[in-house]
Design a protein that fits this description.
- This is Copper amine oxidase N-terminal domain-containing protein.
- By secondary structure, this protein is of the alpha+beta class.
- It has 2 domains: about 90 residues, GMP Synthetase, Chain A, domain 3 (2-Layer Sandwich); about 70 residues.
- It is about 45% helix and about 25% strand.
- It contains 5 helices and 6 strands.
- It has a 3-stranded mixed sheet with strand order 1-2-3, with helices on one face. A 3-stranded antiparallel sheet has the order 4-5-6, with helices on one face.
- α4 packs antiparallel against α5.
- The termini are far apart.
Length: about 180
């Protein structure tokens, strides 16, 4: 029996194209697109980009000032549970910060780090509000803190600019917060 090279290659290429095309279509239209609709429909999400890997789902978000991060994470986890399917959810929030918000966070970071390290999370809102009361240049800054099982969410806004900080409750190795 003699095999012909052209029909074998053509069949192999067609099978590979069908297999990978089907896999890509499933991933795009059955997993990523519904999750994209869920995230985009949440109030306060200006733009979003989703990357799905084997172990994690990364949401690159552009949020409006005043968006509740904890509620967004909870909403995505419940509504998009079939798309997330046991993967960890990782947020990457675009910062629309200003020099004033950065300076405010720099002054608050030591107190917040101390509260995180000692696991006294109720001190965080008090420390943030204390800075607003102590320094008159921060009178327009609004600091909001929220907490869930895995993170502490700090949102700083002063009208049109915002800074979102996600602090993991599980302490990592010694180092800096990579998203602060």
């Amino acid at each position: 029996m003699k095999l012909r090279l052209v029909p074998v290659l053509l069949t192999s290429l067609l099978s590979a194209a069908l297999l990978f095309g089907g896999w890509y279509s499933y991933r795009q239209f059955a997993v990523q697109e519904p999750l994209q609709k869920i995230v985009s429909s949440y109030e306060g999400v200006n733009d979003s980009h989703i990357t799905i890997n084997r172990k994690e789902v990364t949401l690159k978000l552009d949020l409006a000032p005043g968006t509740k991060l904890r509620e967004l994470v909870q909403y995505v986890n419940t509504e998009g549970s079939s798309a997330i399917d046991g993967r960890t959810l990782k947020l990457d929030v675009n910062q629309h910060s200003s020099a004033l918000l950065d300076e405010y966070w720099d002054k608050a970071m030591f107190s917040v780090a101390e509260a995180m390290e000692s696991r006294k999370y109720t001190l965080i809102p008090a420390k943030l509000d204390g800075l607003i009361a102590e320094y008159s240049q921060y009178k327009d800054v609004t600091a909001t803190t929220e907490i869930d099982d895995s993170n502490v969410y700090v949102s700083l806004t002063n009208g049109k600019e915002s800074k979102f900080i996600i602090l993991p409750r599980v302490p990592g190795a010694i180092g800096v917060w990579n998203n602060a």
